[in-house]
Structure formats: C-alpha cells, structure tokens
Amino acid sequence: MKVLSNLMDKQFIVLTICITLICISGNLSANKGLEIAILSDKNNDGFVDSSSTMTMNLINKRGDVVTRKLRFKRLEVPADGDKSIAIFESPRDVKGVAILSYAHKVEADDQWLYLPALKRVKRIASKNKSGPFLGSEFSFEDFSFQEVEKYDYVYLKEDICLDILCYVIERKPLDPYSGYTKQLVWIDKKNYLVQKIHHFDRKSFHLKTQLFKDYRKYEGFFWQPHEIEMINHQNGKKSILIFDNVKLKNGFTDRDFSQGSLKRSR
Amino acid sequence: MLKSILMISILSSQLIVGEIIGELSFDNRYFFDIGLQEQKKNHTSFSFSPEIFKDDSNRIFHFKAKLRKDSEDSRRNLNDIQELYLINIFEDKEIKFGVSKEFWGVTETSHRVDIINQTDFTEGFDGEEKLGQPMIKISLERQWGLLDIYTLLGFRERNFSGIKGRLRLPIPISEKDSHYSSSSKNKRTDFAIRWSNYYDNFDLAISHFSGTSREPRFLQSVNKVNALVPIYEVIDQTGLEIQYLLDSLAIKGEIISRSGQGERFTAATYGFEYTQVGVVQTRIDLGWVVEFNHDDRLESSPFVLGTRLSFNDIYDSQILSGFIVNDRSKELGFLLEASRRVGECCLLSLEGVYFGDTDEDNGQQKLFQAFKEDDFLRIEFIYYL
Questions:
Q1: Do A128 and B103 make contact, defined as CB atoms within 8 angstroms?
Q2: Beta-carbon neighbour count of residue A240 at 10 Å?
Q3: Helix (H, G, I), strand (E, B) or coil at B106
Q4: Taking the model in full, what pTM does it have?
Q5: Residue of A nearest to B90 (CA)
Q6: Is pLDDT above 60 for B115?
Q7: How far is A108 from chain B (nearest CA, A)?
Q8: Which of A118, A195, B159, B188 shows the smallest number of beta carbons within 10 Å?
Q9: Which residues of B touch A95 (CB under 8 A)?
Q10: Cis, bond preceding B172 (omega within 30 deg of 0)
Q11: What is the rounded distance in angstroms from the CA atom of residue B97 to the CA atom of residue B363?
C-alpha cells in the first residue's frame, strides 16, 4: 500500500510540476504579449496633440476607386484615452459632418455626431462600433484608439513581416460589443510599431488584414504611419487611408474637443 | 437691426476670403388627386443655396442663403439668409453675432423644445426646415456644462402655403394682417437661455425662452371673409431634455411648459431609439424609433414608429419609413423615403407620403383632415457646387 501511495505521490508531484510549468509558460507568454503591447503603446506617449488630413480610397473588386476626404485632430489625455475630432470634407453631401470621440481606457468611449444641415449634435450609442465607417472596410472600432487595457494578450512567436523581424501577439477584445473575436498583431522588434493586424470576426473567420505603411518620425519620437490599408477577404474590397499634413503640438486644448466646438465645425 | 447686422457681416466677409460652395436643388411633388381647394397635382420648385465659410481658429465667419422658386405657389418662394454670423472665441467664452440657426432637442420625430428659429412651413410639413434668426449668443463652456445665453433681435413670421399651395389648412391665412400682442410687434427683443451637460450615459438640458411665440394661434379675419389671421403672443416657455444611453438603446424625452397663449399648458415627446448593427450577417444597419406625444391642447396623443435602413455602401443608401398612428381618431399616416448619393456631386431622394382615410367620423378630432387629398410622391435631386 505504501509503495502504491508513494507512487501516487510521485505521480501527483510530477503532475503538479507539469501544471505549474504550463501555467508559468502560459503566464510568461501572456506577460510578454502585454509587455510588447505596452511598449508599442508607449510610442504614442507625449505627442500632446496632432492634426492631419486623411484621404480614404475605397476600392471595389474591379478596382474602381472612390475617394473621401477628412480632417483629423487629436488631443492626448494623459490619464485617460485620447480625444479626437474627424470632420468630413468630401463627398459634398456630408461636408461638415463631424464625429467627436472621447476614448476611455476601460469603459465604452463617448461619441457625438454633428449634422450641419440640422445644426444638431447627437450623442451616439458608441457600443455600435462594429459597423462600417463611411462605407469603407474600416469599422468605427478600427478608427478608435486601441487602448492597451481593452484587450487580453498572448505572445505567439517571432515572424518576418514586410521584410522586418516582428513579434506576433494575439489579442482578444474584452468589449462584448467588439466585432472581432481575436486579432493577430505583428509588431516590429526594433521600434515596436504595429505593422500588420489580422482581424477575426465573430465566427473566428479571418475577415480582414490591416497593413501599416510608410512610418515617419515626428519631433524625434512620434511615429505616424502615412498609409493604412484594410483588405476585406470576404468581399474582395479594400480601403486605403492616406495621412498628409501631419503636425504635432498645435496648441489644442480641451475646448477644441468639446460639444460646443463641434457646432463650430460648420 | 437686421440691416445693420447684414452690413457689418458683409464688410467683414470682404476682409476675409473663405471657402465658397453652394447647392442647387430640383424638387418635384406629384399629388395623386386634385386638392380640396382645386389646387393642381404637380408642383415643382428650384432652390439655390450659396455658402461661404471661413475658420481662422479663433474667429469664424459663415454665410448661407436660401433662394427658392415654386411653380405654383408664390408664397412658397423664399429669399432667406440662413446664416450670416461671426463667432469670436475668447479665453473663457464664445460670442456669436449675426443671423443663424440653433437647434435644441433630443427626440427624432417631433421637436418640442426647439424654439430659437421660426419654422419654414412651406418647405415641408415635418417642420424641420427653419428660417435664420438674428441674434447675439454668448456661450460659456465649463466643468459644470455648456451655457448658452441668447438675445434674439427681432422676429421672423412663420410662412404658410398660399391658396394654390398644397398641404395647407382649408382656410387661407392672411399673413399681412398678422397680429402681435407686443407693442414692438416684430421688432421685440427676446431672450433665451439653455444649460446642458452630460453625466456618463445621461444627458440633460434645461432651457427657458421669453419672447414672441414662433407658433401662432389663429383668429377669424375681420377684414376678409373666410381667412385666418395669425396671432403672435408673448410667451414664456421652459423646456427639459433628457437622454439616457443603455448599451445600444437611447431613451429620450422632451417636455415643455408654456404660458402666454391662454391657459398654461404642457406638451411632451418621449420614446426610444435602437440600432441593430449588421442585421442578418450583412453590412446593413437597422434603426428603430418609437415616440409618443402628449399635448394638453389636443385630445389625441399620436405615436410614431420609424425605421431607418442604412446600407453602409459607397452611395450612403438609406431607406426611412414612418408610421404615425392616432389611436382615438383611427387615423394612420405613412411615409417612405429612399436616398442615395449619385456620383460624387449629387444626392437623389424619393419620398412617398400617404394620409390614411379620414372620412369615417367617430366624433374625434382629426389630425390629417385637411390633407386627405394630399397623398404625394416627391423626387428631389441636389447638385453640390
């Protein structure tokens, strides 16, 4: 009996060690995933504010292109998510329409829509963020700032993407209203910049691939991708977002991102 | 006063050259029947809206006019300055001076609280189109919310369709004989104030207006047989707007209390709006609006059920539908509107409106009695310059 119990003890110990090891390695990869995400997010620290113009090219399966133009302003909010305002320039029928967003680290973002024809500011239920933005392959969610706290992370591997060495991490949105079940994110080892994201829809189908190109450095530390491409594998369409006239430290204040300021956008 | 504002604004506009744009629109309404007062079936109108906008970061200039010409009803012709103002932004406040439009409210189908601008009743019967109002507006935005203080310089009369126009009351309205309870008539300076703020998912606004009512009452004309005269009385109106966001559901309500037009009365619109994103595994969003109405002055309390299908395509295609149900009189009205962008320059919309049969008399006050022959189809084409 004693022999048997010894044997069981040993087996139990071995089992415990195994479980512990799995847990540790699991924890390690979660920690490493989170660490990479934090380092990548740090790239954005201290930019204070930024302004840019955005051109969005919507390309269908046949290659036909339609263009949308926007103006974009962003204000860093140190203890919380950033504030931003996007003002539509074209097509003409939506000129002057503006979206004001207050991103938050954990809770849902606040969003307001300004309709110049009615002179009306309308609060949007920002839970509805999985829908397309301006008829593009980007969703509202893809446009909002991806705060570190909004995901769970697992480190997967190293991989080559666009000729550079990258970490690959998997992140799962904690928000039940997200349109995605998971995302694979390629972050380069040198500068910790997001290079590529694979988006998986609610059925865990690889729905979209997002590519970040033409990173340029501002003020010696702030990296801005000048081209973001979103390819939808389900419908064969893609949208390309081009940033121009990027300018940091415009001297924006909270007043430039208030509901009152929204009414001044046209 | 209006003239001096005009002069100042035109002078300022010459100093700053802004972006110049415009809209040309063609509008054709086809009514299925000859009107109750023998009005014609087909009504066409053209409108032109030039616009200048200039933003110098702490100074904004905006000009927008609306000119409309109607084929049948000369009362539907319009020359209106919708916007002609300067905004100066200071450290702690913002001052708007000139003609402008200001919207107050949260509900979708009826706007109880909204009172700064006069309604252009000839444009559409939904009351969404407004006329420019001369004003000085001071805005303070602080931690405790947004406070807007308005001094409204002079008054714009409501415009009504003429004898040849459709969607009107059976008795013509004699605008020339308008009566005012204030001795200053349409020159009276009115005041308004509105405070608004949001707390997490809760939005709140409280407002007060003291001045000439935008909505007139009517009296039988003494000069003309069979004509109504609008009476513009001085009123005090307090309004409350609330909205609560619960996930994808917006619960909202507007209530006013008004004195100065006979007995003090209360009127309210309340309901909810809900949006389903990506219905049946597509890109299409489906929005629902249900709103109830109450008005002390009316026996009936109609409710509205509306839906909005947004296709989220490159044309921004949309289909709106709305039912208005007046339970007591057994009336039902229906509206269907489809719109889409055409190319990059233009917008096309088609609209159909049906007023349910109102011949049956059950002794209840009717809402659409005057419109019973006014079912119509409308096509609108807008070209953006």
A1: no
A2: 20
A3: coil
A4: 0.89
A5: A255
A6: yes
A7: 9
A8: A118
A9: 21, 384
A10: no
A11: 50
